[in-house]
Design a protein that fits this description.
Layout (H helix, E strand, L loop, with lengths): L1 H14 L9 H23 L6 H21 L4 H23 L4 H28 L20 H7 L6
Length: 166
């Protein structure tokens, strides 16, 4: 009986929606940085002829970037990064669609993989600079909610694009 209760509690916690995924702005930075490094490495491996699941890595990166965006909103992190992470989330799904469309064209696939590696590299460049600069709110008033384009939903976009395995 105790085991069933523990399993039920774990399922409840796993399926409960969170307001945001990361406890701190720094945790969001770290997750985006690691996801960017991984994405860049997988794209480079694919360019060398290895066969990593780059589309799945793009969907995962997109989700992490969206979660980082939500964390920036919830914890009143840097406004510009809210929009940058939102854009990276959207761009990752577009790159997955580009890669899928280029499946039978070696030159188009190479170009898509180069773009994907560049996206991963961008994530690693944006985050450390932002983390090093730190975030200060001298007025102590917080920042207004995100005012860039509408929040991008990577899961819905990936489902619509047929990018997630069923």
């Amino acid at each position: 009986m105790k085991r069933a209760g523990l399993i039920g509690m774990c399922l409840f916690l796993a399926l409960s929606p969170a307001a945001y995924a990361f406890d701190t702005v720094d945790a969001a930075y770290s997750a985006v940085y690691r996801a960017g490094k991984g994405l860049e490495a997988q794209a480079e491996d694919a360019m060398r002829g290895e066969d990593p699941d780059v589309a799945a890595a793009l969907v995962g990166f997109s989700k992490i970037a969206a979660e980082a965006r939500d964390t920036m909103d919830a914890l009143e992190g840097p406004h510009d990064l809210r929009c940058i992470f939102n854009g990276m989330s959207e761009d990752a799904i577009r790159r997955a669609e580009q890669l899928k469309a280029a499946a039978d064209d070696a030159d188009a696939r190479k170009a898509a993989l180069e773009d994907i590696a560049f996206l991963g590299s961008d994530a690693t460049l944006v985050v450390p600079e932002s983390a090093a600069e730190g975030y200060e709110d001298p007025a102590g008033e917080g920042l207004p909610p995100m005012e860039c384009d509408a929040k991008f939903d990577p899961v819905q976009a990936a489902d619509l694009g047929g990018l997630l395995a069923k």
